[in-house]
Amino acid sequence: MASELKLLFSREEIAETVARMAREISVDYADKKLVLVGVLKGAFVFLADLARELTIPAAIEFVRIASYGAKKESCGKITVTKDVEISLEGKDVLVVEDIVDTGLSLTFLMDHLRQHHPASLRLCALVDKKARREVEIKVDYTGFAMADGFIVGYGIDFNEHYRALPEIFVVD
Ligand code: IMP
Ligand code: MG
After folding, report:
1. Long-range contacts, 22-27 (Cβ 8 Å, 24+)
2. Atom of ligand 1 nearest to the CA of 108
3. How remote is the CA of residue 33 from the centroid of ligand 2, in Å?
4. What is the per-residue pLDDT across 13-64, written as a single tens digit (0 to 9) for each?
5. Atom 16 (ligand 1) nearest CA
């Protein structure tokens, strides 16, 4: 892999942003039955840091979704390959995702989770690529907004490489 990586968000910027998001969530979900639902694999580092910054109790679940068909095509079929393992009925579910790009996979996932009858369902994303959106989706908590470019690190991969990097880089 001869890709060049350019630093985009430092450890300090990420830590500050995650702490800010955790403060907002801790206020909004005080006295609620918060369940964080992390989207594998990309959100695992973000979720781990976010959860440890919360000042309120939270259950932690994971889901995994896969899209088949032509990559980057909106016609790709999306399926849940790993579902939550507890009942979400009456719970306050907050989906924790690494990146919202076209919005297609998250729209599918939110529709799927709604069928579990949560009391509330919201979305938290570390990175929002708003300009690339193909379907409208509300991101309730956003870490960073970015225009375009492919990023890696802090759980986010390029063909399974770079997930363990502590900072976020743009791949050139
Ligand atoms: P979408 O919103 O349905 O297009 O899918 C977003 C998902 O695509 C994210 O959760 C990532 O898994 C992946 N993705 C989008 N942009 C990037 C990127 O810049 N780097 C790595 N993965 C990305
Ligand atoms: Mg993802």
Report:
1. 22/50, 22/53, 22/54, 22/55, 23/53, 23/55, 24/141, 25/50, 25/54, 25/56, 25/94, 25/124, 25/141, 26/54, 26/55, 26/56
2. 3
3. 24
4. 999 999 999 999 999 999 999 999 999 999 999 999 999 999 999 999 999 9
5. 101
